[in-house]
Amino acid sequence: IKTIGVLTSGGDAPGMNAAIRAVVRTAIARGLKVKGIKKGYQGLLNEEIVDMEAKDVSDIIQRGGTILGTARCLEFKEAEGQKKGAEICKKHGIDGIVVIGGDGSYRGAQALSRLGINTIGLPGTIDLDIACTEYTIGFDTAVNTAMQAIDKVKDTSSSHERCSIIEVMGRNAGYIALWCGIANGAEDILLPEKYDYNEQNIINNIITNRKHGKTHHIIINAEGIGHSTSMARRIEAATGIETRATILGYMQRGGSPTAKDRYYASIMGAYAVDIMLEGKTNRVVGYQHGEFIDFDIEDALQMEKGINDYQFEVSHLLSI
Ligand code: F6P
């Protein structure tokens, strides 16, 4: 392997820049050339490929977003697009690619690997929904951003003695919602993985809490459940308590990464280059039980992960 490429794909996540920096600098330190591929697989197909030197990644570790840009690319899901991508890699002398993204991005990496381009995936998503790893790049920053925003909503909610429904991101995964539920001391948490809640129970809970003197009632609603605005209208009508919905949205994807996201993304970026140099391909990097490890992409995609029952129970125990 003489030249490697790096790209970010799917939704961006804080810490992706730290990972790009680590890939570029580790590769250069190991005597390789590096090419940055802009806008994910779409940029590969458009040949938006630039040489990268160590100085090109200076002053980015603290920045949110991704300096390479990112995209979700439908064309690359098809065999024809994948073949074209592999040919473009060969034309540019790219022997291997580090793909920073979520599960969807690994399918493309898998295809490239079959076509002779070595690939290593890094888990980049705020959702924490990649089964082979306890850590994903961006989750720590996103959950801290959401937590701080919820604290602010809680202040005004208490002053006005309102109920607040706060919708957090996470596609179909409730990790941000669970963590904020515990970290913000929410009264109720609605998660797609535990979607058996009964709205009447929430209404009863709000009324009971109000009788016990609680001036606020915070409901964290995961994006996968959604409908926060209509839920707020129904709850207000049933309880007679003013209820507002706040959808935090894309603010959770931006901002300067936390120390944890900078640190783990840096180690993972270096690790990806080093295992590629050992001859590995079609692998995804994960973090489990205090170790950085890697898995075959197919095996990783077969794994499942869910919300821990005990942790979910604790969120209820602490919300009385
Ligand atoms: O996967 C990250 C994420 O922010 C999800 O939480 C969310 O559902 C999705 O991306 C939104 O995607 P888009 O940027 O395409 O609107």
TrEMBL record:
<dbReference type="GO" id="GO:0005945">
    <property type="term" value="C:6-phosphofructokinase complex"/>
</dbReference>
<dbReference type="Pfam" id="PF00365">
    <property type="entry name" value="PFK"/>
</dbReference>
<dbReference type="GO" id="GO:0070095">
    <property type="term" value="F:fructose-6-phosphate binding"/>
</dbReference>
<feature type="binding site">
    <location>
        <position position="244"/>
    </location>
    <ligand>
        <name>substrate</name>
    </ligand>
</feature>
<dbReference type="GO" id="GO:0006002">
    <property type="term" value="P:fructose 6-phosphate metabolic process"/>
</dbReference>
<feature type="binding site" description="in other chain">
    <location>
        <position position="154"/>
    </location>
    <ligand>
        <name>ADP</name>
    </ligand>
</feature>
<keyword id="KW-0067">ATP-binding</keyword>
<feature type="binding site" description="in other chain">
    <location>
        <begin position="250"/>
        <end position="253"/>
    </location>
    <ligand>
        <name>substrate</name>
    </ligand>
</feature>
<dbReference type="GO" id="GO:0061621">
    <property type="term" value="P:canonical glycolysis"/>
</dbReference>
<dbReference type="GO" id="GO:0046872">
    <property type="term" value="F:metal ion binding"/>
</dbReference>
<keyword id="KW-0324">Glycolysis</keyword>
<keyword id="KW-0808">Transferase</keyword>
<dbReference type="GO" id="GO:0003872">
    <property type="term" value="F:6-phosphofructokinase activity"/>
</dbReference>
<feature type="binding site">
    <location>
        <begin position="102"/>
        <end position="105"/>
    </location>
    <ligand>
        <name>ATP</name>
    </ligand>
</feature>
<dbReference type="InterPro" id="IPR035966">
    <property type="entry name" value="PKF_sf"/>
</dbReference>
<feature type="binding site">
    <location>
        <position position="162"/>
    </location>
    <ligand>
        <name>substrate</name>
    </ligand>
</feature>
<dbReference type="GO" id="GO:0005524">
    <property type="term" value="F:ATP binding"/>
</dbReference>
<keyword id="KW-0547">Nucleotide-binding</keyword>
<dbReference type="GO" id="GO:0016208">
    <property type="term" value="F:AMP binding"/>
</dbReference>
<comment type="subunit">
    <text>Homotetramer.</text>
</comment>
<keyword id="KW-0418">Kinase</keyword>
<comment type="similarity">
    <text>Belongs to the phosphofructokinase type A (PFKA) family. ATP-dependent PFK group I subfamily. Prokaryotic clade 'B1' sub-subfamily.</text>
</comment>
<feature type="active site" description="Proton acceptor">
    <location>
        <position position="127"/>
    </location>
</feature>
<comment type="pathway">
    <text>Carbohydrate degradation; glycolysis; D-glyceraldehyde 3-phosphate and glycerone phosphate from D-glucose: step 3/4.</text>
</comment>
<keyword id="KW-0963">Cytoplasm</keyword>
<feature type="binding site">
    <location>
        <begin position="72"/>
        <end position="73"/>
    </location>
    <ligand>
        <name>ATP</name>
    </ligand>
</feature>
<feature type="binding site">
    <location>
        <position position="103"/>
    </location>
    <ligand>
        <name>Mg(2+)</name>
    </ligand>
</feature>
<keyword id="KW-0021">Allosteric enzyme</keyword>
<comment type="function">
    <text>Catalyzes the phosphorylation of D-fructose 6-phosphate to fructose 1,6-bisphosphate by ATP, the first committing step of glycolysis.</text>
</comment>
<dbReference type="InterPro" id="IPR012003">
    <property type="entry name" value="ATP_PFK_prok-type"/>
</dbReference>
<dbReference type="GO" id="GO:0030388">
    <property type="term" value="P:fructose 1,6-bisphosphate metabolic process"/>
</dbReference>
<feature type="binding site" description="in other chain">
    <location>
        <position position="223"/>
    </location>
    <ligand>
        <name>substrate</name>
    </ligand>
</feature>
<feature type="binding site" description="in other chain">
    <location>
        <begin position="169"/>
        <end position="171"/>
    </location>
    <ligand>
        <name>substrate</name>
    </ligand>
</feature>
<dbReference type="GO" id="GO:0048029">
    <property type="term" value="F:monosaccharide binding"/>
</dbReference>
<feature type="binding site">
    <location>
        <position position="11"/>
    </location>
    <ligand>
        <name>ATP</name>
    </ligand>
</feature>
<dbReference type="InterPro" id="IPR022953">
    <property type="entry name" value="ATP_PFK"/>
</dbReference>
<protein>
    <recommendedName>
        <fullName>ATP-dependent 6-phosphofructokinase</fullName>
        <ecNumber>2.7.1.11</ecNumber>
    </recommendedName>
</protein>
<dbReference type="GO" id="GO:0042802">
    <property type="term" value="F:identical protein binding"/>
</dbReference>
<keyword id="KW-0479">Metal-binding</keyword>
<feature type="domain" description="Phosphofructokinase">
    <location>
        <begin position="4"/>
        <end position="275"/>
    </location>
</feature>
<feature type="binding site" description="in other chain">
    <location>
        <begin position="125"/>
        <end position="127"/>
    </location>
    <ligand>
        <name>substrate</name>
    </ligand>
</feature>
<dbReference type="InterPro" id="IPR012828">
    <property type="entry name" value="PFKA_ATP_prok"/>
</dbReference>
